[in-house]
Amino acid sequence: MAERGRPRGFDADAALDRAVDVFWRQGYEGASLSDLTDAMGINRTSMYAAFGNKEELFRRAVARYAFAEMAYARDALTQPTGYAVIEAFLRANADALTRSDRPPGCLSVQGGLAEGGDNGHIAKFLADSRLTGEQALADRLARAVEDGDLPAGTDPLVLARYVMVVSEGNAVHAAAGAGREALHATVDMALRAVPSPDGHRTA
């Protein structure tokens, strides 16, 4: 027997995907419960039963977004050199931020930009999520220093933070209407700051 309030044939994953889209377009504060339940095709009782409250739904939406939409970030970490890791990540990121079948920008950046009445819980959650990705990148770049394809003395955490600042800045500009070509031009400039094994900046 179907759970009370849940429509027959309810697909939790599909409903969560639609919630991702609402949060992505409107941010956490901008997305009302009515916006979410209308998009998900369920009533509030079903939403609470399947996903918990709005904050819990948002956390699950961000996790699904990270798994599905950020796969390119995990793939970039498998590149053979530190420079290749950075380039693959920033290029794929610029493409992802400007996909025609997705909202422009990035859920993890836009989701918590507006201040709300949650005492900063959502902003901190998103910041922590981004720091997790930054740390994974820093760990990979530390290995690149050990392997000699980044110069000795390179601070992998500072370099990873620099890469993430470029990525997050591009996300803000994409949400404001910047196109793919403009974002890749920014990536071109950013890559010139990546040090080469001989200690010189990459051309």
From TrEMBL:
The keyword DNA-binding applies. InterPro entries: DNA-bd_HTH_TetR-type_CS, Homeodomain-like_sf, HTH_TetR, Tet_transcr_reg_TetR-rel_C_sf. Keywords: DNA-binding, Transcription, Transcription regulation. Residues 32-51 bind DNA. Residues 9-69 form the HTH tetR-type domain. Pfam families: TetR_N. Transmembrane segments: none annotated. The keyword DNA-binding applies. This is TetR/AcrR family transcriptional regulator.
